[in-house]
Amino acid sequence: MTTTAPARSMFQQVLGDDFGRLHPQLRRRFSVGLASGEACTGRGVMHRIWHGPAFVRPFLALGGTRNILVPRAGRDVPFVIENVPYTDSFGRETVSFVRTFDLPGRARRFDAQMVLSPKGDRVLDYLGTHQHLASELHFAVEPDGSLLIRSGEHRFREGPVDVRVPELVGAGAEVRESYDDAAGRFRIRVSVVNRYVGPLFGYEGSFTASYTSVRSRGVRPGLRPVREEARA
Q1: Which member of 24, 188, 221, 227 has the lowest number of beta carbons within 10 Å of its beta carbon?
Q2: Predicted confidence band at 197 (pLDDT cuts at 50, 70, 90)?
């Protein structure tokens, strides 16, 4: 008698056996996918959203027009992160990472949609409303059971254009997500750093998570990008 292995999320596939070393709360959160049928919504506070040198701000403002990064700094900013799995228009399993920051004046969004790379060894992160930017993401489990995500190559895609973003103007992102048992909250810290000019942008905060059935609730209007990029 043969048994079929349970279907795994894209994050389980990328991490392999190391997935079992994650904190149990992180294991559930990163089990979100079409196989589990669950969506995860995090609600909390960004204790700090920071920017680097002043010359960075116009670029953040430009990115903000397409929901890439956050063009305003702040402290103790309420936020929501929506991780919802769905099948995109090219038939790929996708998990949204849509963050909404309730900044003074009006809310700002930072949109990303993740798909598994064709080789299955990393995740591709499509940024913004039109997915003009794509980054490779590499996942690793830390000794304390937290999750470390580092970006690799970045590409810009528009029409026939498909080019690697050079290091001079590009940046590397590092995300650390952990679970605080004493507080009963997830903790997240993000930094984006240019190799030549240093830190550009980042945030750190904490949140709680709730889970819903994506099969019964579906994907809410406005969560998916305006344009989807086929190139991996």
Answers
A1: 221
A2: confident
